[in-house]
Each structure stands twice: as structure tokens, then as C-alpha cells.
Input
Amino acid sequence: MKAIIYGAGQIGYNIAAYLSAEENDIVVIDESAELVNKVNETLDVQAVQGFGSYPDLLEKVGANKADLMIAVTPCDEYNIIACQVAYSIFKIPTKIAHIRGAHYLDPAWQHIYNPDNIPVDYIISPEKEVARNLVTNLDVPGSIEVVNLETDLCTVVGLYCRESCPIINTPLKQVGELFPNLNFRVLCIVREGIPLIPGPDDQMYKGDEVYIAVEQEKLSRLTTLFGLHVEPLEKAIIVGAGNVGMALASELLAKMPDLDLKIIEKDEQKAQIAAQMIENAVVIHGDALDSHRLKEANVTTADMVLSVMNNDESNVLCALLSKNLGAKYVMSLVNNATYPKFLLSLGVDSVLNPGSVTMSHILRHVRRSDIRSLHVMQGNFGEIFECDVVADSKLIGEKFRNLNVPEKSIVGGIVRSDEFIIPSSQDFIEENDHIILLVKREFISDVEKLFRK
Output
């Protein structure tokens, strides 16, 4: 696949790094010489300086052979024009644009995004996607993360193994025998920062982070085993009233209108805007790294503190300070991919990497299989797919052991006839099976081919 990425900022850089690792032909364009040099020095891709909407530059980098245009500059208009030129002149089949402006995202105007008007095939709005993921994580407060799936019969949840967990130090095949009606499967174990797809003889140990596919109705029972009791949130604090914070507040109050929500913002102007736009929240102007401000927001009785400022270190410090002051659970937004490896052990309950969220959203439109949803695991270890087995699939009649290969992938479960099932390796794959699957990154292209029409 040949892809042109316009914008070498954090989002564009992460996309280029991820896609280039899969041996795709990647070209990155940006006006900044500094950003272009960084890409050329650190990634195995072609990076050129200029404007991604200029026809002569696009022609020079081979746009006539490109399969994909991803426009992710900070300017909505630049991104839209780049997609227009990519389609009108070079007929690039798939165009993805990063659009932030509410005036462009208003549902009333979505009909303009089509080949006859503005040829943007897919819009990504990272701030909104991050906010939605944060709200989804709140379905299981204290979890590492909750994966967005299309099916409502199954959930994939990341949990931290505490010493009190009764199923640690036990082979997984015996865990299934001890809890035959729990209907779950361990997809991945992350131990000391190293992830692995477990086999039936592997065990979970204290300190492990585990990702588990579980029947939705059994979720609360599973989380109880890991020391978490899922209860509705009553009091929450958002730290940071930037784009993510504002989107998060709106999403939270839409889902939980009775939530006692407070917002802390250091910038006076942002605090005033937040107070005007979020009517059902109390906005406090001040520095959340000041314990007095946190106490003013009643952090000692808060069910959840979500730190979503624009600085990783500030988010981490705020989360740890809030936890120390008595907050029940704390969640931190962190861009640095190395931080999550040790933050959980320090007391941060959940860490969300915006890059993983954005990448998940983009890859859903890049993968060439019948994918319902896609989630990039933090650390880029692999991806969690929801795939359909279509009528002409070569998988029909094969055994699940072809997918349950510890070195490559593991089936978390299937939805068949509106029922969630954990299949054995000897069970057969049937037409219309809806499969939840974790695939290690280096084998994604191999497994993806199996699900193509």
C-alpha cells in the first residue's frame, strides 16, 4: 500500500511510524523543515518539505499511484483542500482528514462530504475520539482500559492483577474449570512491560496487566475477582478545559446527566469559556497541581479524577496527587508511550494514549478486511479486531486452531446467532460468525488476508 501523509506533527508522525513498520510505501509531507528532518532521521519513510495540497508536489511523490491520503495538519482547511486535490487530480481512492472545527463537524452539514462536493471519505476528530474512549473506560472504573466493541454481547477489558486476586498463580486451563460459567478468555498478559499471548498452561501473576474478553453479562463478576466493584459514578473531576477536556465533559454529562462534575482549568480564559459552555458543571480557575485547588473541588470524596491537560508530566503528577488526597480512581492522558509501563505500579489506575486511539480510528478505514471495529493496544503490541466471516470466506469449515496460534493470534470469542461463545481450538468456523480476535502486530497482514472477501 502506498500512503501519503500530510502533516508531520505528533499524529502524522505516529501514523507514519506505525504504517511503515508494516512495509508500506509511506510519503510524509510538511511545511516545517524541522519536522521533515525528524521524520527522515528516525523513520524509514520518504519525507519532503512543502504543502500537501500542491499538485506539482503530489505528482512528484507519486500521488497517481497512491492508495491513501491522510491529511492531519493542524489546519482543517489545509486538510480538506489536500483531499480535494488528491481526488480531483490523482483519483486517490481513500481520503482521510483530521477536522477539529465544530462548524465542519455539525451533523447538519455532513452530507457535503461526498465525491461531488468535498471528497473526504472519513473524518477523524482525535479530541472527540479520545473523549469517547475515556467515557467508555469509566464503565469499569479502576480498569486499565475498556475496548470499544461494536457488539454489546462482549467486552474486552484490561485489568491489573493484585495479590488478592484468587485466580493468579493458576494455569489458565484450570481457571476455566474453577469458573465454568464465567465465559471469558485471557487474550494477553503484559508482564514487566513485555506482552504475550498466553497458552492454556500459562498463569497470571501479581503485577501482571491482563486483557480479557468476557461476556457482557458476566463483566461485573469478573471485575470483582480482580478487586474492582463496578458502581455508578457520582462525583468526578476533569482537570484541563482544552479540546479534550471540553469534549469529555460534554460526553460525560450526556451519558450521566446527574453526575456531580467539576472542571479545574489553570488558564483564566479557558475557564471562562468552559463555564459558559458546560452549564451543568462547576468550573474552578486554578492550578490542579496545587492541593488546595483539588481540595476545593472535593477531591477527597471524588469517585474519579480525569487529568487531560496538554502536558504528560502534569497529568501524571495531578493523578498521583489526587490519589494521595483520597480520590477513589484516577485516570491520566499520556502521549509518551513509555510511561504506561510503570505508571500503574505507581498508583495511576488508568492511562490513555491519544496516539493509540487515533491510530485505531484510522486503521479501521485502512485495513482491507471486513472489520467492524479495531483497537490498537497500548505499546503497539497488536490489534484487537472484530471481523465477520463472509459467505465466500476461505475460513468457513476450518477449525479455530488455525487462528489460536500463540505466536500470532488468539480468538477471544465469537458472536453466533446472538450468543457470545468461547470456542475451543477444535470447533469449526461458520459463515456469519462475528469474531473477536487479538493479532500480534507482525502477523496482522497474514491474518487480515484470511478475512478478505
About this structure: The first helix runs from residue 10 to 20. The CA atoms of residues 203 and 331 lie 27 Å apart. The chain has a mean pLDDT of 91. The two ends are 18 Å apart (CA to CA).
